[in-house]
Amino acid sequence: MFGIGGGEFIALVILAMVLIGPDKLPTFARDAAKYIHKARGLAAKATEELRENLGPGFEDLQVTDLHPKKLIKKTLDGVVNPKDFDFTDEVEEVTKSAKIDPDLL
User: pLDDT means per 10 residues in the chain (105 residues)?
Assistant: First the structure.
């Protein structure tokens, strides 16, 4: 759960009991659960609206797919084959022709 081990979880519970108090802890936990539920609902609604606005082809969109590299790859997948573009000759030509002006150093 969130990368937290058993000992760390127990330490957090004890810390919460000390800071909040054992009498207010159940109320605090209930309120925290409500806020987490509400935040998850907002995130799901935002993701669904994003799917609708992006249109066809994005029905299986995940939030992790929104990274720019992943989004471009998913959009161009099947349209452009990256192996069709070989720029090694151009890069070598530019590297050979590029000279550093000693006055700029």
Answer: 78 86 86 93 87 77 75 71 70 75 66
